[in-house]
Design a protein that fits this description.
Blueprint: E1 2-6, H1 10-22, E2 26-30, H2 33-42, E3 47-51, E4 53-54, E5 57-58, H3 59-67, E6 81-86, H4 91-99, E7 104-107, H5 112-124, E8 133-135, E9 138-141, E10 146-149, E11 152-153, H6 158-168, H7 177-184, H8 195-207, E12 213-216, E13 220-223
Parallel strand pairs: 1-2, 1-3, 3-6, 6-7
Antiparallel strand pairs: 4-5, 8-9, 9-10, 10-11, 12-13
Helix pairs in contact: 6-8
Length: 226
């Protein structure tokens, strides 16, 4: 999944990004409200970790802009999930954050393990699955970074795991190469390279036979959901 971390403390922002990348996510950073606004207008994010207090504005207002449709939505009409991060721990502040449209609210200081769990929970929302993803013979435990087919471990790299995770959260859905690049890779990925095709080829080899990820000519790829 592709995440945006909006946090004005560079050290904390980098630490969060490192941890979330270890979890298999593609992560972009924004240190100001202005940078966050630009990124939200030019890329499709699945989730935003959003600091309330930013040097040039309020994360609360940015949250409202996303929720109220002032910023572009995905091509499927979905907005990113929003996890508000803030040192404000008063009940009235929590209520204000949730009323602004945030999907969850985490008070600083927090443990990364809790942040990671909340991110996983938010990304599962509206998907008919529990913590463990199962599609046919495939089984994935994102928290343990484990994936298997018929009980046999697949031994995936972080990016292969992230790509399979994205397919398994949308079984049967056809996704173009551009869509996969948008949601599984971060802003450092070169759209002119064949990185999606190479990663997909390696993933298919590890998933094994018979093939479970099929090519839909002229449209993209999908995970067979039966």
């Amino acid at each position: 999944m592709r995440l945006l971390v909006v946090e004005d403390e560079p050290d904390l922002a980098e630490a969060l990004a490192r941890g979330l990348r270890r979890d298999g996510h593609a992560v972009d950073l924004a240190l100001t409200a202005y940078d966050a606004d630009l990124r939200l207008r030019t890329a499709g994010y699945d989730l935003v970790c959003l600091d309330w207090n930013l040097p040039d504005g309020s994360g609360l207002e940015l949250c409202r802009a996303v929720v109220e449709g002032e910023l572009p939505l995905f091509e499927d009409g979905q907005r990113p999930r929003i996890l508000m991060l803030t040192a404000r721990d008063d009940v009235t502040d929590r209520v204000a954050g949730l009323d602004s449209g945030a999907d969850d609210y985490l008070v600083k200081p927090f443990s990364f393990s809790e942040l990671s769990a909340r991110v996983r929970a938010l990304l599962r929302r509206d998907v008919s699955t529990g913590p463990i993803l199962e599609v046919g013979a495939l089984r994935m435990d994102p928290a343990r970074f484990e994936a298997s087919r018929d009980g046999e471990p697949l031994g995936l790299t972080s990016k292969e795991f992230a790509l399979l995770n994205y397919f398994m959260s949308r079984p049967g859905e056809v996704m173009s190469q551009e869509h996969l690049l948008e949601h599984v890779w971060d802003e450092m990925a070169d759209p002119l390279t064949n990185v999606v095709r190479v990663t997909l080829s390696n993933l298919r080899k590890k998933v094994g036979e018979p093939p479970l990820i099929e090519t839909v000519p002229g449209r993209g790829y999908r995970l067979i959901d039966s």
